[in-house]
UniProtKB/TrEMBL annotation:
InterPro entries for the chain: Synaptobrevin-like, Synaptobrevin/VAMP, V_SNARE_CC
Presence of the UniProt keyword Ribosomal protein in the record: no
Organism: Ascobolus immersus RN42
SUPFAM superfamilies, A to Z: SNARE fusion complex
Name of the protein described by the UniProt record: Putative vesicle membrane receptor protein (V-SNARE), synaptobrevin/VAMP family member
Transmembrane segments annotated in the record for this chain: 87-108
Keyword Cell membrane: no
Taxonomic classification: Eukaryota, Fungi, Dikarya, Ascomycota, Pezizomycotina
Length: 111
């Protein structure tokens, strides 16, 4: 394309008269570099998304495990509470029987 012809934005001149790169080719080079960087960033975002999905799955598994642990802990707590109540009742009955065994002979001998 010669200098005398009209400017066509669809066919920019890639070199000037003295052989240097034109502004258009420099801008195209910068655009290519930017596109490359953006592709790398998109790949990194996709990898990050995959890691986040994996982390989400692990978090869901941990939440399920924690819920199971909580249920098991409540069962154990209730079982231990009942065991404690039974033990207190047995001790109470034992003390009452001991008192009856001690007091009844004393009352019978005095009468």
């Amino acid at each position: 394309m010669s200098e005398a012809g009209p400017y066509d934005p669809f066919y920019p001149a890639m070199q000037t008269q003295d052989g240097n790169r034109s502004k258009t080719s420099e801008i195209q080079s910068q655009i290519d570099d930017t596109v490359g960087i953006m592709r790398e960033n998109l790949n990194k975002v996709a990898d990050r998304g995959a890691r986040l999905d994996s982390l989400q799955d692990k978090t869901d598994g941990l939440a399920t495990s924690a819920q199971g642990f909580r249920r098991g802990a409540n069962r154990v707590r209730k079982a231990m509470w009942w065991k404690d109540v039974k033990m207190r009742i047995c001790i109470g009955i034992g003390i009452i029987l001991l008192l009856v065994i001690i007091i009844v002979p004393i009352v019978v001998t005095k009468s």
